[in-house]
Specification:
Alpha-D-Glucose-1,6-Bisphosphate, Chain A, domain 4; globular; 3 helices; 6-stranded antiparallel beta sheet; alpha+beta
C-alpha cells in the first residue's frame, strides 16, 4: 500500500487541534460540513463535498494524541482508506503527522489526493491559529 504523509506545526495547544479534528464544529470549519458525532471508536460521520459524499468510521481515538478515520462509504474510490492525525507537543507548538493510506499505486489519483490533503491541512492550521478555515463550500473556500 502507498501512503501520503504530511508533517507540519500549528501554533496552538494540542487540545485545541484535537478538538478541530474530532468534532462536528471543528471539521465543518476547516474541511467540509458534517453532522454531529461523538469522537469515540466506532462512531461514524458523513462528509459532503458538493455531489461527492463519504462516510467515515473512527477506528482509533486517543484524546489529544491521535485519531484515525476509515472510509466505509464513498462516491469515489476511497472505501477502505484511512486517514490518521497524530499529534504531539513540539517546541511550544502542536506537531501534526498526517497519514492517508490505502492507495495501490502512486498515480494521478494519489497525486490529486495529496494536493487536496495539503490544501485542507493548511485550512486546519489557519482555523486553529486564526479561527478562520477554508472549509469546502464556505465563503473563504478556494477551489
Amino acid at each position: 500500500m502507498k501512503a501520503i504523509h504530511h508533517l507540519f506545526h500549528i501554533q496552538k495547544p494540542v487540545a485545541d487541534v484535537f478538538r478541530a479534528i474530532s468534532s462536528q464544529e471543528g471539521i465543518s470549519s476547516w474541511y467540509t460540513r458534517t453532522d454531529h458525532f461523538e469522537a469515540v471508536v466506532g462512531a461514524t460521520f458523513p462528509l459532503h463535498f458538493g455531489e461527492l459524499a463519504f462516510t467515515f468510521e473512527i477506528t482509533e481515538c486517543i484524546e489529544n494524541q491521535r485519531i484515525t478515520w476509515k472510509c466505509i462509504e464513498a462516491t469515489m474510490p476511497l472505501v477502505g482508506h484511512s486517514m490518521t492525525y497524530a499529534l504531539d507537543e513540539n517546541d511550544g507548538k502542536t506537531r501534526v503527522r498526517f497519514t492517508h493510506v490505502g492507495f495501490t499505486e502512486a498515480d494521478d489519483f494519489m497525486a490529486n489526493m495529496n494536493f487536496s490533503s495539503a490544501k485542507y491541512l493548511e485550512s486546519l492550521r489557519q482555523y486553529c491559529q486564526t479561527g478562520n478555515g477554508e472549509a469546502f463550500g464556505s465563503e473563504r473556500y478556494r477551489s
